[in-house]
Design a protein that fits this description.
- This protein is mainly alpha-helical.
- 85% of the residues lie in helices and 0% in strands.
Length: 277
């Protein structure tokens, strides 16, 4: 059972180690690269059909999840050294972590392949709709198909977030051993579901708050862009908004991974205490 004072302690410690300049700079640069990918895909979606636009809307989410998974491993290992009050050298941490950092991105591949498969199946339903005479009949009768496909795509997005929260600390602390990693992930998922959900909500709360605030600010900025009459004007606007957007979002991302590491350790400590009792 979790102790509220213990949660308060790890929250405060995660927050205190969030604002390191080097960590924030590294995170901001990586988020900016992810932002460039998102803006590029949105530019393609502007000129593409509905089916292609859908692919370039969700595909960056899964690609960025793989990038953030590797980034989170670095951030957690740096945070571990900071908590132990060691002298942190980022290049040294990267030198002993690069194999794990590169290998971790492969965990996003099954999700990406699953999404591409769902996207292709959705394309079959769209083709059936274009059949002359009976296309609309198929669109009505088989409406449950696109509904279930879209639901599965949203669940894959949720799975990507859960992967960042649960898998990143395991890889950061244990390294890449696929069989052992899967076993630990299943064990962590089954162990104290309520605590995992509660601590996950605490970890993501600052991130959601920052995303809502920054997205609202970006929306208000876009609504007063009277000169944006051409689609490429909007693309350039998204690009230049993305730079401060990602910079201001980086503290929430650093805190998310700090707290994910603390939650991972806390869950296992609580499990050991309960097993002793």
């Amino acid at each position: 059972m979790l102790d509220l004072s213990e949660i308060q302690r790890i929250f405060n410690r995660s927050w205190q180690h969030t604002f390191g300049k080097k960590k924030l700079l590294m995170t901001a640069v990586i988020l900016a690269l992810c932002g460039v990918l998102v803006v590029f895909c949105r530019a393609i979606a502007t000129y593409a059909g509905q089916w292609v636009a859908m692919s370039v809307t969700f595909l960056p989410v899964f690609l960025c999840a793989g990038i953030l998974l590797s980034t989170g491993i670095m951030l957690i290992r740096i945070y571990h050294d900071e908590v132990k009050q060691k002298d942190v050298q980022m290049m040294e941490v990267f030198a002993r972590s690069w194999e794990v950092v590169v290998g971790a991105s492969y965990f996003a591949i099954p999700i990406i392949l699953g999404y591409l498969l769902l996207w292709m199946v959705l394309g079959i339903f769209l083709l059936l709709r274009q059949i002359p005479g009976i296309g609309e009949f198929f669109a009505v009768i088989l409406a449950f198909g696109p509904f279930l496909i879209n639901l599965c795509i949203l669940l894959l997005c949720l799975l990507s977030f859960v992967m960042l929260y649960l898998l990143t600390p395991i890889l950061a602390f244990k390294g890449i051993n696929r069989i052992k990693t899967v076993q630990l992930l299943i064990e962590r998922t089954k162990r104290d579901v309520f605590s995992n959900i509660f601590l996950g909500a605490v970890a993501v709360l600052p991130l959601i708050f920052c995303l809502c605030l920054l997205s609202l600010s970006a929306f208000l900025t876009g609504s007063v862009c009277y000169a944006c009459s051409e689609p490429w004007h909007h693309v350039l606007q998204w690009f230049f908004i993305m730079i401060p957007f990602t910079a201001l979002l980086s503290p929430a991302v650093v805190f998310f991974f700090n707290f994910a590491a603390e939650a991972h350790v806390l869950i296992y400590k609580s499990a050991k205490k309960s097993s002793i009792v």
